[in-house]
Amino acid sequence: MALLTAQASIVYTDSEGTFESLSLDRFIGAVTTKKYVKGKVSVGTSEEAIPLGEVTALGWAGFKNLDVTNYVEIRFVTGAGNDHVKVPPLGVAIFHFGSDVTAPFLIANTAACQVEYLIVSQ
C-alpha cells in the first residue's frame, strides 16, 4: 500500500483587519495502486491532453503554474467552455478528479506556460 499526504492552506486578510483561514494541515489517504505520473509540460493556447502515463483511474492531482504572467485552465473534457479549474500565474491547484474524468486537458490563456503536475491513481 502507498500513502498520500497533501498540505495546503488559504488565508484572506484585508485592510480592515479581517482575517479568515482554512487549513488542511495534513491529509493522509491510502492509495491502493502504486501508479502515478509526474511531469512538466509547456502548455500553449490550444488545449493539450495531459500526459497520464500508466494512470488510468484518476485520483488526487496537484498542478503548479510556473508562469509569472499568464494563467492556465484545466478541462475535464475537450472543447471550449469546459474550463473547470483555473491555475493563476505562480498558482497551484490540489484536487481529486471526479469519477467521470478520463482524459483531462490543459490550456494557457494568452501565451505558453510551464506547468508541473503530479497525478496519483485512485
Architecture blueprint of SSEs:
Elements lengths: L1 E12 L5 E13 L4 E8 L4 E2 L8 E8 L6 E4 L7 E5 L4 E5 L8 E4 L4 E9 L1
Explain the overall architecture:
- The protein is 0% helix and 57% strand.
- With 122 residues, the protein is mainly beta.
- It has a single domain, classed as Jelly Rolls, CATH 2.60.120.10.
- The strands form three sheets. The protein has a four-stranded antiparallel beta sheet with strand order 3-10-5-8, with no helix packed on it. Strands 4-9-6-7 form a four-stranded antiparallel beta sheet, with no helix packed on it.
- β6 and β7 form a beta hairpin.
- The protein is globular, with a radius of gyration of 16 Å.
Compact summary:
Helix content is 0%, strand content 57%. With 122 residues, the protein is mainly beta.
Strand order of the largest sheet: 3-10-5-8
Which fold name corresponds to the CATH topology?
Jelly Rolls
Which oligomeric state applies? single chain
- What is the CATH class name? Mainly Beta
Secondary structure category: mainly beta
Low-confidence stretches: none
- Note the total helix count: 0
Helix content: under 10%
Features:
122 residues; mainly beta; Jelly Rolls; 0% helix; 57% strand; globular
